[in-house]
Amino acid sequence: MPKTIEARGVFAPTPSRQDSKANTTSTVARAILETEVKQREAKTARLRALRLKMEAEAPPPAPKAAKPARKRAVKA
Question: Whole-angstrom Cα distance, residue 12 to residue 6?
């Protein structure tokens, strides 16, 4: 961050010490969250690729045997 008045501008407010610490904390927190999101998406993509590969290599399921048709009782 520029420290001189000329670099900041004449009317630019100077951040307080608390604002600077809060800004640093939020920047670090956002960076951590971004890396977690990237890791989660990479893991999801890897697991999806493995699942699709496993499904492609698996033999097709055997067709189920047809159940015999029930006869309805006829009322006399």
Answer: 10
